[in-house]
Write a structure and sequence with these properties.
With about 550 residues, this protein is of the alpha+beta class. The longest helix is centred in the middle third of the chain and has 24 residues. A hairpin with a 6-residue loop joins strand 6 and strand 7. It has 2 domains: about 290 residues, FAD/NAD(P)-binding domain (3-Layer(bba) Sandwich); about 150 residues, no CATH class.
Length: about 550
């Protein structure tokens, strides 16, 4: 029987390839046309995984992830020792990432038998929004998925989407947002203390709250809510002389019709109060590789910047939207984001923000910058993402957080903090070395000024360590869908989930669930019916999965 994988992002590709490598045919389907999603559409700088504290020389990478990072390194022109793993931080260009993904899928374009071992066939189905899921009469097994007008009857199914669309349509119990810190016993879950800015939140002349600012909800610190952190697009920029200048986008009729200077009044007031002296974005400290016609850099909205590519507080509806609605909203976001950089470069008010000067410990001036000057030094890359509503802007949203299933086990905050510990049924080691999040709300504070909430102090001053993904955290509740596994919308509290929020972590989880689907196929059963000790664990170990703490010799 065939294995169905929803969403051809990095983890979807890995899940399908892991199953095909072991002889199982797979359908890899998605609503859009972007293969590889964020890793091939803007996420140029790979995030850093931690290592085991007990033995820091032991990497957490295994399986297809090692293979991919080695390929990234070779194609990016990085010298690789064949006896060692390639470095984690590779900065591959989008072209390199896409080529690696395409070549891997091409290996499984047809089923083959090599040296007596069968490899499966992967059929890629693009532009096929989800339409329906049918289940058996008891309601505990998925029988078919319909997407893009085609119905696929498969044995096992995996949801690799950020939003958990397949799991939700299949009737799995879902959760979203933050739990009450008191209820789950996690000190930094729930609503967080606000970070103040002295920019006024109200028009002094009328007393009215400025547009595009929300009122601060009447919530206590630690209360539960259904909000998520801000999304954005990773923007690939260049400082090449032939860059696409921000000011030139006014020549795009769609942007010209959309742009209104007043949309960026709050951004200007905040930047003036914060005395921003550089482009509002965190740009990779090295260009993407290999160097091509233009030096390419990955620009994020890191460091809890209060203006930039994050559209703070504007993503509450995204998880519930149809694919068409998401595409329209993504385009609106793209236009608005380009509008900020256009406004900085063309609206004279930004020139009134004072220069920012920095001195070394001896009082010697080391930098003297002004936000307009620095922003104008950058622009989009000619020829990149030509089909975007703004050519050069990513065709994919960086969906940082959405639904999570309520599965058979939860990942919780205590799993992620010292001391490191083994667990009963692990499927992979993983570790994001910090509790990273972005602002959840930008609001009018009680003192009349702007305030930001949700992105700071989440580690509770505890040491975050490597941990293991629980087999029960990727499976739907018993009685809901015994042939469904998930990768990104794993079961856990907000703080238990937060350290898995990394492409490399998701790729290893995908590798594990792809193996599980193939083992289930070999045994003519569902993934939820596998015996971990006798069926799944031996298969994981055979593929090199890291599922126990290292022990020093």
């Amino acid at each position: 029987m065939t294995y169905f994988v929803w969403e051809p992002n990095s983890s979807g590709i890995v899940a399908a390839c892991a199953a095909a490598k072991r002889g199982t045919d797979a359908i890899l389907a998605g609503a859009g046309s972007v293969l590889g999603a964020m890793w091939a559409a803007g996420l140029g700088q790979t995030d850093r995984e931690s290592t085991f504290k007990l033995l820091s020389t032991t990497s957490l990478r295994w399986g297809i992830l090692i293979q991919f990072t080695r390929e990234f390194a070779v194609r990016a022109g990085v010298e690789v020792n064949p006896n060692k793993e390639p470095p984690e931080v590779l900065f591959p260009t989008m072209e390199v990432v896409l080529a690696v993904f395409q070549d891997e899928l091409a290996k499984y374009a047809e089923a083959k038998v090599v040296n007596g071992k069968r490899t499966g066939k992967i059929t890629v189905v693009k532009n096929a929004p989800l339409q329906a899921v049918t289940k058996n009469r008891k309601g505990d097994t998925i029988m078919s998925v319909t997407c893009g007008g085609k119905t696929f009857e498969c044995q096992n199914y995996t949801d690799c989407s950020d939003e958990g669309d397949l799991a939700r349509l299949a009737g799995a119990t879902m959760r979203i947002g933050r739990e009450s810190s008191a209820l789950v016993g996690e000190p930094t879950n729930g609503v967080r203390p606000v970070t103040a800015n002295t920019a006024l939140a109200y028009d002094p002349a009328t007393g009215e709250r400025w547009p595009d600012l929300d009122a601060r909800p009447y919530q206590n610190i630690g209360d539960a809510d259904a909000r998520t952190m801000a999304f954005n697009q990773r923007i690939i920029v260049t400082d090449d002389a032939n860059r696409i200048p921000w000011a030139s986008h006014i020549n795009n009729p769609t942007f010209a019709a959309f742009y209104k200077p007043s949309d960026y009044d709050n951004e200007f007031r905040i930047a003036l109060e914060k005395l921003y002296g550089v482009i509002p974005g965190s740009i990779s400290n090295a260009p993407l590789r290999p160097p091509g016609t233009y030096a390419q850099f990955d620009m994020n909205n890191g460091g809890l910047l209060q203006i930039g590519s994050n559209w703070i507080g504007k993503w509450l509806d995204w998880p519930y939207m149809t694919f068409a609605e998401r595409e329209a909203y993504k385009n609106k976001y793209t236009l608005r984001t380009i509008g900020l950089f256009y406004d900085i470069c063309t609206n004279p008010r930004w020139l009134t923000i004072p220069r920012t000067k920095k001195y070394d410990e001896n009082g010697v001036l080391i930098s003297d910058t002004q936000i307009v000057e620095v922003t104008k030094q950058w622009g989009l890359v000619p020829g990149l993402f030509p089909d975007s509503i703004i050519p050069g802007m990513s065709p994919a949203m960086y969906v940082r957080e959405s639904f999570r299933i309520v599965g058979q086990e939860d990942m919780i905050w205590d799993d992620c903090v010292a001391p490191e510990q083994d667990i009963a049924e692990p499927i992979t080691a993983y570790g994001y070395p910090h509790a990273d999040a972005h602002w959840v709300m930008r609001v009018a504070n009680d003192d009349g000024n702007v305030a930001f909430e949700g992105g700071s102090g989440l580690d509770n001053r505890q040491e975050i360590v490597a941990t293991f993904m629980k087999w029960g955290a990727v499976k739907a509740r018993v009685g809901e869908a015994r042939n469904l596994t998930v990768v990104r919308c794993i079961s856990g509290t907000k703080m238990g989930w937060i350290t898995v929020r990394l492409e490399m972590c998701w790729m290893k989880i995908a590798n594990a669930v792809g193996i599980a689907a193939s083992v289930a196929n070999d045994n003519d059963c569902f993934t939820g019916d596998l015996d971990y000790q006798t069926q799944l664990k031996p298969a994981l170990l055979a593929e090199g999965a890291i599922i126990s703490l290292p022990r020093a010799a």
